[in-house]
Amino acid sequence: MSAGLELMTMNLLAIDTCDARGSVAVLRNEETRSVTVYEGQEEYSSWLLTAVYRSLEAAGLSLPEVDVFAVATGPGSFTGARIGLTAVKAWAEICQRKIAGISRLEALASQAAPDTEYVAAFFDGSRNQVFGALYRRRAAEFDRVGDELVLSPSEFIAWVGAESGSQPVRWAALDPEKVTGESAWSARADRGEEIFRVPSNLAPLIGKIGYGRALGGNLVDALALDANYVRRTDAEVFWSGGPPGAVRPK
Fold this sequence. Notes:
34% of the residues lie in helices and 27% in strands. By secondary structure, it is α/β, with parallel strands linked by helices. The protein folds into 2 domains: 3-104 and 201-239, ATPase, nucleotide binding domain (Nucleotidyltransferase, domain 5), CATH 3.30.420.40; 112-197, Nucleotidyltransferase, domain 5. The chain has a 5-stranded mixed beta sheet, with helices on both faces. A 5-stranded mixed beta sheet has the order 8-7-6-9-10. Helix 2 (44-58) packs across helix 3 (78-95). It is globular, with a radius of gyration of 19 Å.
């Protein structure tokens, strides 16, 4: 453990590669020192290392000076999430550091205004679906209600309504239009509910949550870190028989 961590001053490296809106951030405690945003011009497997060292250099740090790694564990792209987690596992092993694995949906929920008990978070899951989750606020913490899900937008709206009952819900999203275009949203809008669009570079938010986890001692080692893909990969779908009409690859 570095001297900085003993003094409760932490350097954190935060990574999100779970979809095409990826980012890398370096934080000192909760303060963002640098951010590098993915612009979709190359594969994550070649972009990530350069982005990490660019962010560290901008913050005046080297990789061994990182006290805690924070990484988005999903949901999202199988390949993207795997690249981010594999890199963080390797660096954590080399540097003998712990890791905070953070859901992107929790990062979205963390940006909702603090005056509502329930927060629904979602973003585009493609295939006319959204990745989503419902959280219940307890003081400064969030408890997730049920599992993270991948549903059609209308199904997600209905599920949130069933779980939250008559209580008002705050909505936080990367892609509000995925839900606001649904007829089922009208009833929520009539209740005065709105959807807050969260900026797409999530690495700083993931880093802030990671800092809180570190203070609470809720970190894991490289072996315990795992992804939450929510949706099975296409290969799994095909080889298990797949949806009606699906054709297995030859």
